[in-house]
Amino acid sequence: VRKAGSAIRLGMMPADGIGREVLPCAQRVLQNTPGAPKFEFLQLAAGFEHFQKTGSALPDETIRALKEECDGAMFGSVSSPSHKVEGYSSPIVRLRKELDLYANIRPVIGVRGTKDDEKWVDTVIVRENTECLYVKSETSESTPEGQVARAIRQISEKASTRIGRKAFEVALARQSMREKTGATTSGNAATAKVTVCHKSNVLSVTDGLFRTSVRAVYEKDARSAGGPGRYANVTMDEQLVDSMVYRLFREPHVFDVVVAPNLYGDIISDGAAALVGSLGVVASVNAGDTFFMGEPVHGSAPDIAGQNKANPIASIRSAALLLEYMGYPEPALKIYKAVDDVLREGKYLTPDLHGSATTTQCEEAILKALGA
Ligand code: ATP
Ligand code: MG
Q1: Contact (CB, 8 A) for 10 and 42
Q2: Complex ipTM value
Q3: Which of 47, 141, 177, 198 could form a cystine bridge with 207, CB 3.0-4.6 A?
Q4: From the CB of 181, is ligand 1 less than 6 Å away?
């Protein structure tokens, strides 16, 4: 449901550190992509520095504007204080709640030509974002043998079913992107596949429920009356989380879409990011049913902030992901391709990829590759 007029209105929250350098790059790329819709950008306050100035990491006005005026959003990066700060809580966590962004979708894509192409990584991790151990319900009691701490891990049929459905939709969307590019964006499996990640051999109740709920999405679809189901061309398999990590490192090319509960998803998606050379190239989108927020995976990188050294690719790819999920796959593909061209050419890479280009030079190379 479009809220703005003729232009698509995006709420931009650069927040802290390098977020302020890389989010504007993503904005310029969106503005200059041939065939992209017209955008309006609304700059919105958020972040740790904003908290230090005003006592709020996410002003009510930002949430109101996102809900009432914006069609989508981009988030930069937020500094996390290393010690507990009274009154501070992460704006990202709250944004996910307020906007019901229950899925974190993270494509992990290798740089072609830099690794054995047949072991090329092109995987999407779909992480459940609202429950599991991160419901943060912990207790501690003292016993004669010392302290005992416990955490509650919540897995629900409702949340597992909707993340399952999201994963199959992601698999379909990827398949259609592959068809549009004429070949494969990946050297990987030509057919769409969803791998369900769990540990139900040990945690048969909680992971068991996750597993059966996700499987049920697929099985119900297969049984649906009136012709082949929506996911008829998607296959499904499953992997225990420990062997998943092993295989992800040994043979990442076997995975297409991986769906996982919150904690496993968190861990394997950071692990997967390590396969592709730099946090500076890994994008994500936080997805609900109708609202999407692009967000680079990296943090605020205080060690390089303010030096025009940060890699803008994670943010630029996040902007493309946002476009894709908002229903504009063609201009999104142009951005992915421009980024791939610049990565492959290797002349305008930032220091995290062992180049010497500045943030600005890398962005300019991408704009040029776009034909902007
Ligand atoms: P935060 O507390 O905000 O998470 P952090 O110190 O954990 O900060 P990250 O942003 O997670 O920082 O980055 C970890 C490392 O990766 C840092 O050394 C950082 O410089 C590097 N890095 C992260 N993002 C980028 C980027 N876009 N370009 C270049 N280097 C990056
Ligand atoms: Mg960090």
Answers
A1: yes
A2: 0.95
A3: 198
A4: no
CA atoms within 13 A on the CB side of 245: 12
Separation of alpha carbons 282 and 339, rounded Å: 12
Does the Cβ of 355 fall within 6 Å of ligand 1?
A: no
Q: Is the Cα torsion angle 90, 96, 70, 19 positive or negative in sign?
A: positive
**Does the C-beta of 317 come closer than 6 Å to ligand 1?**
no
Which pair of tokens denotes residue 278? 């730099």
Give the whole-angstrom CA distance, residue 349 versus residue 361. Answer: 8
Please give the distance, rounded to the nearest whole angstrom, from the Cα atom of residue 299 to the centre of ligand 1. Answer: 5
pTM for the whole structure? 0.92
From 276, 297, 352, the mutation candidate for ligand 1 (largest count of ligand atoms within 8 A of CB) is 352
Indicate if ligand 1 lies below 6 Å from the C-beta of 352. Answer: yes
CB of 359 sitting under 6 A from ligand 1: no
Token pair recorded at residue 318: 């996040």
User: 185 is written with which tokens?
Assistant: 């964006």
Q: What is the mean pLDDT of the chain?
A: 92
* Residue 41 identity: F
CA–CA gap between residue 23 and residue 31 (Å, rounded): 12
- 327, two tokens: 């229903």
Check pocket membership of 269 for ligand 1, CB cut-off 6 A.
no
Residues 6+ apart with CB under 8 A from 194: 167, 168, 171, 214, 218, 234, 235, 236, 237, 256, 257, 258, 259
CA 44 to chain centroid, in Å, comes to 21
Q: Which of 323, 359, 362 is nearest to 339 (CA)?
A: 362
3-state DSSP assignment of residue 309: coil
Output the residue whose Cα is nearest ligand 1's atom 19.
301
**What's the confidence (pLDDT) of residue 107?**
94
- Condensed to tens digits (0 to 9), the pLDDT of residues 239-285 reads 999 999 999 999 988 999 999 999 999 999 888 888 888 899 999 99
